[in-house]
Predict the 3D structure of the following.
Amino acid sequence: MEDRLQANGCKPLRVALAAALGVLLIAVVLAGLALNYTVKAEQDVRYVGLMNLVAEKLSKTVRGVEMNAENVFDEVAKHLDSPQTVIGALGSKTSLNPDVTGYFAAFVPNYFPQEGKWFQPYVHQGDSTEFVLTLVGSARHDYTKSTWYVQGLKEKECFWSETYYYEDDLNVASGYYVTYATPIFDATGRLACVCGADMTQEWLINQLREIEDELVQDELLNSRMLPGSRDFFIVILNDDGTSFAHRDGDIVTVSDEDFVNALKQRQRGIAETEVNGKPSRVYYTPIEHTHWTVAIVVAK
């Protein structure tokens, strides 16, 4: 009888002990979740700050290109009298920005009857530091089918073209290009040409590389990065989720439909998605006036 009483007396103790252990376990789990949330929130703050910094620097670089190109556009608009004055206008401002591969004026077919159907003078970097003139319009190079020309027919002001691949043998380097362009109208209000400034993919890669190297040397920025939070890379994405610039030239692809739609809609945010097949956390924001988005990709 006494043994049964002792056994029965232990039950409340075991129940209380189990309950206490349960409460402790819940507390540990909640504490772990809270710590994880705090670390992730801190990580988000750091990477969003880094993303904004890179985007700001790139935006300033892009705006510098735009301002110099617009000086050339204005000069061309003032000199539509003849093919010779157009060529002179294109060449008069080329020294403003050595990063520009070349400036061109692609005229509507037969605008200058004496030049025939196609007239596209292109003042561009040659084999030396000097700019050279090449007339690139022809039946073989029908610029009226180019994406930037087609877009220029619809625009009323300056715009950045989609990325495109140029391959030719007219003393112009082959490769991926992007063009800052504008339609130009003559004194009668008639469209005369689409005028543009070409930038290469390599130019943007170099800009990104310089920015990354500068950030690596930034002691204040590095002191704020969390331990173990350096497994990331910076990439400039086209609005279809493919990369246009990576410092090492790596090809980066994000195929998540929701993410690509966000890029097309010029959104900014944080996404959990696969990048080149690897689970990642992506911090992204668009660069104004362009089809590009700066993305900080963090491996999970």
In short: The radius of gyration is 29 Å. Residues 29-37 have pLDDT under 50 and may be disordered. DSSP finds six helices and twelve strands in the chain.
